[in-house]
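Aim 2 progress update. The chain analyzed this quarter is reproduced below.
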Amino acid sequence: YHALERAWARRRPAPFPLCVGDGEQGLLWAESVAVQGAACSWQVHLTVAPDLFCPMYNAAQLATGPALAAAGNSPFPLGRRGWQEARIAVYEQGFGERGASCRGTSRPRAGFGHTWLRGGPLAAFEEAVRGYDVLLPAALPAEDDVSPDGCPSLEELRLHVSTVWPWNRPVYDPLGHLRIEFRALPSGPTPLDMAANTAFLVGLTLSLAAEGRDVAGELPFAHAKENFYRAARDGLRASLWWPSPGSAPRRHEAGALVEALLPQAREGLVTAGVDAAEADAVLDLMHHRATSGRTGAWWQQWTLEALSRRETRAPNAGQDTTGLTATAPERDVTLPAPEGATAIRTAGQAGRTGDRGARVANSGLPDPLLEELTVRYARLAEGARPVHTWNLPTLPRRSQR
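Predicted structure tokens:
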């Protein structure tokens, strides 16, 4: 990471701007690529047979749009108001330098891509080699370039590909496997949410590529790319393109599209060997999100609005959210919760009523599971050291938990 930092310093002056929201409050200046820590993601790898890699990769590109719309969880990047999944914009700007291409063009090193993948898996790696210059050079002895199993380790290629950051990245495993790395999903708000996001995205990808189907012939790539950024910006309210059998692609409201795609995602999971009951359980959470509109981003925005009505507004309270989030745990606030849980109580309320901890907000957890998570978090907090969050004042002990 020090080498990566030095490489970026030679290419881009510091500090560099990050536009994470509207107006002056939405413009930040970063000194280091370490700002990418604010864009933490949940990355999942799918192993793919070489002869299926091209249609599977294109299916992943198409499936990412609706999956991201239902998974939004970062509306307040670094304490500012931003997209439903503002992590996307933060990450792309943090690695915003463009690489010089051998063909004289320039493309961002972080982004969604520029065309459908054609010509097999080699084309994906060829694009990374021809399209971008080297950030981290490494010279390895020739005898080290073969794994114990006899497969080429391709260390230099793998290192170079790791410095190009598409949201769906081709990965070569030194054991001889090809994988697709899904990089767009957020980390949170709970492990169950992350499992549901994964199930929907992977299941839909498998279904779209079933029997060698290649969606590249059904939708212009520009529409898939537009879907991705609309989903990140607008969440379940986004208008997304989708292929229509026998006719031109049509736009759909993202929530309705996710609901319509759930059977396909289930089919993809079950065909791959996932237990049907388990697939139904996690996809049911996506159903509740799609029909209610309650994503992690929605919950955070609603919570802030509820707290704002009970706070004495500071001059910049409309943009900088850190002051509100810092005082939130000490207020009596009743917040909305998903199916089965009608109120989310703060840590301050929980302490006065004798509960072990506040209920945990989630985009679709049934009430018994909420209670179970509450107990687990409370037990974890009992033995945890106080954590001081960057840019927040020191809080009372219970609030730190």
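Confidence is low (pLDDT under 50) at residues 98-105, 322-366, 384-401. Residues 40 and 187 are 7 Å apart (CA to CA). These observations will guide the mutagenesis experiments scheduled for the next reporting period.
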